[in-house]
Design brief:
This protein is an alpha/beta fold. The protein has 5 helices and 5 strands. Keywords: Amino-acid biosynthesis, Aromatic amino acid biosynthesis, Lyase.
């Protein structure tokens, strides 16, 4: 049975491969999307990126209303500031995996307090771009359990 997994990306992730490669690596967002689709197997993937908080909230609502199987979300900078993203995720009743390319706990203190972690089923941080495929596989394992 095919399920739909939403992979949602926040601000500046469209700059992957160019932005601070010493932190985020050289993998582009298009390459990340390909990794997610490969990891999803027979499951469908809705893969999106936005630089706008309200758009991310709308996509979480869409995942909720469509009965998505799960969400992998890298809210980027909104992780630490967005009550609207937090509130939208609270309404999503299926598994949520919060993902960060870098290990946010090894970075400056401003990156240590995730608002999203309190509602996430699991958190993956510090695996680089390959963390996305890991997150999709983990989400599939959770759904299969």
């Amino acid at each position: 049975m095919s399920r739909t997994i939403h992979v949602l990306n926040g601000p500046n992730l469209n700059r992957l491969g160019k932005r601070e490669p010493e932190i985020y690596g050289h993998t582009t967002l298009a390459e990340v999307e390909a990794m997610c689709r490969a990891a999803a197997g027979e499951d469908a993937v809705v893969f999106r990126q936005t630089n706008h908080e309200g758009q991310l909230v709308d996509w979480i609502h869409e995942a909720t209303d469509s009965g998505a199987a799960g969400i992998v979300i890298n809210p980027a900078g909104l992780t630490f500031t967005s009550i609207p993203v937090l509130d939208a995720l609270k309404m999503f009743e299926s598994p949520v995996i919060e993902l960060h390319i870098s290990n946010i706990h090894r970075r400056e203190a401003i990156y240590h307090r995730s608002l999203v972690s309190g509602v996430a089923t699991a958190v993956i941080a510090g695996l680089g771009a390959r963390g996305y495929a890991t997150a999709v596989r983990a989400l599939r394992d959770i759904l299969d359990a």
